[in-house]
Amino acid sequence: MNEVERTVPATEEGRSLTVRIWRGAQDGEFVSYAVPWRANQTVLDVVTEIQRRIEPALAYRFSCRVGVCGSCAMTVNGKPRWTCRSHVGHVHEDGVLTLEPLRNLPRIKDLVVDMSGFFDKWQQAGGRFSGTATRHDPPAAVDPYSRKRRLADAAIECINCGVCHAACDVVAWKPDYLGPAALNRAWTLVNDERHAGARDTLKRALADGGCCACHTQGGCMAHCPLGLSPTGSIAGLKRLALLEFFKGGR
């Protein structure tokens, strides 16, 4: 990996923030930019300023800017984060930000990665909901306090931002591992009594590259911006795997 640095001067005087951004695809280099340091600015604010005022060709993703969509996720000083909710004052290192695309995903250009493999694994884990009723049937009477509903609710807020996938060391060295987001989704469906394909989803989650490949290091849980625990979801799937083993289901 090349780390050639070029300095682009700031357009305003005053205290400066040094921002090192990965430019290019798999083969590329870091380029350094100096921008004014402003109070309460987020990392996404800084990237946007660089793109609008200094480097129009800089490629990155964002949408909502308020922590809802997750599309602005990047690697900030070595850690995957939502940049719209990461304030510079909390994440800089001696006035320096180093920004890279999310790890464990192919790089397209600059800070943009190809998410197709990530979503393919979500489908491989049986992540598509299949209802047992039609729109003509009355709504399912689901007890919100039942054990299975509470287990599903604990993991259901995932928005597939890819942060946990980027933080997972197993994903890095085992390409066929489904990853924490896909398995977290499988856990929610296994516990959703409305899901007609629960058995198939469980079978997929227990296959090679599934939950048993997890080393329970907790990186996904530590970095999840929503405070979810894919580690806990995967542990639940492992318990079901053990039950399946004793029942002779594998």
Describe the structure.
It is built from ten helices and eight strands. By secondary structure, it is α/β, with parallel strands linked by helices. The protein folds into two domains: about 5-115, Ubiquitin-like (UB roll) (Roll); about 115-245, Fumarate Reductase Iron-sulfur Protein, Chain B, domain 2 (Orthogonal Bundle), CATH 1.10.1060. Strands 1-3-2-6-4-5 form a six-stranded mixed beta sheet. Strand 4 (about 75) and strand 5 (about 80) form a beta hairpin. Helix 3 runs parallel beside helix 7 (about 180-190), helix 7 (about 180-190) runs antiparallel to helix 8 and helix 7 (about 180-190) packs across helix 10 (about 230-245). The longest helix has 17 residues, at about 230-245. The radius of gyration is 21 Å and the shape is elongated. InterPro entries: 2Fe-2S_ferredoxin-like_sf, 2Fe-2S_ferredoxin-type, 2Fe2S_fd_BS, 4Fe4S_Fe-S-bd, Beta-grasp_dom_sf, Helical_ferredxn, SDH/FRD_Iron-Sulfur, Succ_DH/fum_Rdtase_Fe-S.
Question: Short description, anyone?
Answer:
With 250 residues, the protein is of the alpha/beta class. It is 33% helix and 15% strand. The protein has 2 domains: 7-113, Roll (Ubiquitin-like (UB roll)), CATH 3.10.20.30; 116-246, Orthogonal Bundle (Fumarate Reductase Iron-sulfur Protein, Chain B, domain 2), CATH 1.10.1060.10.
Short key terms for the protein model shown above:
two-stranded antiparallel ribbon, six-stranded mixed sheet, Fumarate Reductase Iron-sulfur Protein, Chain B, domain 2, 250 residues, 10 helices, 8 strands
